[in-house]
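Can anyone check this?
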Amino acid sequence: MSAAQLSLFNTLTRRVEPLVPLAPPRVTFYTCGPTVWNFAHIGNFRTFLFEDLLRRWLEHSGYDVFHIMNLTDVDDRTIRAAREARKRLVDHTAPFTKAFFEDRDYLRIKPAHVYTAATDYMPQMIALVSKLLERGVAYKGEDGSVYFAIAKFPTYGRLSQLDKREIRVGARVASDEYAKGDPSDFALWKKADAEDEAVGAVWDAPFGRGRPGWHLECSAMSLDEIRKCCGVQTLDIHAGGIDLIFPHHENEIAQSEGATGETFTRHWVHGEFLNVRGTKMSKRYGNTLTARDLRDQRVDAAAVRLLFLQTHYRQPVDFNDDALVAAGEGVRRLAEFQGRLAGARSGSGADTISGLAEQVRADVAAALNDDLNAPQAIAKLFDFVRAANRELDKGAGGAASALAAMTEIAGRLFDVFPTPRKSDADLERWIAERVAARNQARKSKDFKAADAIRAELSAKGVEIEDTPQGTKWRLR
């Protein structure tokens, strides 16, 4: 599947633009990772999964990607959560960091080349604040904290397109997360308070004992890593959710460019929100769902991946039971077709399938190069499955070429084949008992009970089939 020019929507310009790396084929790629104060929710992973597709497509297209993802293990939320748990900061965040990596692997997200935990980069953060103070774009406030002076950065607001008249010169905001559209001087370094000291979230610096502001962390870590990797001070791609555009990414631009004098990021890419059953996910609505919840419910990661791929990354996606079931059915169809191809003998008819395989490669490439249009690519993949199945029914040849295309697209690129299920003795005994109970219910013509048992088995990922030789089962 050869790729032509990839174009992506650039939040900075509000246009779909060709991706032009600073030093091709190298692409430096920074993604905002989780704040490890709790388990990451499925909305976070919607963003991480679209970024996973972007990385896979870049690599498939021949780019040498250097992927950095941060782990926010010190900020207002982590400190507050540690205090409420009566733990040291590091003791509170460590289990959630471990859980994030487990959830990442469950959802088959490719590991970043570097994970930057904020607490490991204090020297770099202190150096960045010192640089901003030296350049006169930061100052120490009366409260002992260090702030960025946005009035000294004339282009502030261009990413989020803030109305410059709304900027309140001299006003300060110390909170990591503040009101949308409240452009004020933001905290780079926060003077330590009793709560910070209590959980061990404090570091000594020339400008005072304290800890970094959330926004500072990403700038210091990304700039440090791309300098070490590639000797540059400009990222090719910076990605994240749309909720990070302001203030987080706006502030990243200001403090990074304020220190280096160079463009911080050439291409900004942002993904839309995820809704659960039609409502934006939040604790307020009681619909917070984590990747861990899905894993505990034995939801196949392939179904989650396919569900998200069927909506463009710049459109909201609705996560509901019906959509998940439909995605699971799509995963099953792909696996059945892959199995048919693997077992197919050389057809006696004309080799019409090889042409279909080349066409689906071209169609998928065209879709993904057009602002990562995964829904269009997925639609073309299922068109290919239907067309190739028809040709196989006619005895056509070319199954090997179709198998190669499926492995390449549905396998390595989209990674939506079913997860192999591990069986164990206890599970097998339980399944045998439930199948026997269902058979007895059918003999007694208690079809309601039989259907209930089938549903119970299905909920555990067990598919059953009634055959002349008896009831057979398999794990999805």
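Reply from J.R.: I decoded it. The first strand starts at residue 7 and ends at 10.
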